[in-house]
């Protein structure tokens, strides 16, 4: 029972992050599940099964409020589903010893991206409405879907800023379309894991606990984003992801690094503290601009 409660809290926390930033549900929840010892394939499978429900609810909500461009959903979602299925099949075929550092490396890279994305860089958005072509969206979906399945997350961190950076869609439609397409990615990844793993290592109770936490958090996230600046959340979550997965990677190294391990931890914590401080000191006008660009993913 204690485990189910903890998983529900993980799902709640991950959805709060995702609902406030428009990304990082999978990255956050998979990182936390790996930290408690779950095998990479089982962790990613559990997260994606839970996301089938959360992404469906989120996509329907965005559609209701007119935030979805269905052409973009199809053009990015179908290749994304193919990439997710391939990624799930690849991860399912790896041994736990081989998969854990690979997954941690992907999550570490995504953590670095999230930290810099909400601390230093901001996307260019000129709100010019021009259709995005299939030859652009298809590769983005394929890569994002593959990384999402193998790393336990990555659809939002790759897809959302890539589409925002084009300046051809309103931010609300980017978030809504990526969220709606993520349902296809979650279904495809779940099928890939079920075919590759069967039900081994996948606990239905854990899936339901994650799903329940996410569904509870969805409306809270819409309220939270009005209070906590997205930059603060991005810096906090990015640093947590980097620290946790750096620990996993160093533990998988073939050589003993001894006291150097603590030096690395100290450096990460210092950078993390600097990032949070920078986000906290952001001018009020900049915070308002970021909040407008990154609407709540409820």
TrEMBL record:
It is found in: Cell membrane; Membrane. It is a multi-pass membrane protein. Keywords: Cell membrane, Membrane, Transmembrane, Transmembrane helix. It comes from the Bacteria. One of its GO terms (cellular component) is plasma membrane. The chain crosses the membrane at residues 35-60, 72-95, 101-120, 178-200, 206-225, 259-276. PANTHER family: MEMBRANE TRANSPORTER PROTEIN MJ0441-RELATED (PTHR43701), MEMBRANE TRANSPORTER PROTEIN YTNM-RELATED (PTHR43701:SF12). Belongs to the 4-toluene sulfonate uptake permease (TSUP) (TC 2.A.102) family. This is Probable membrane transporter protein.
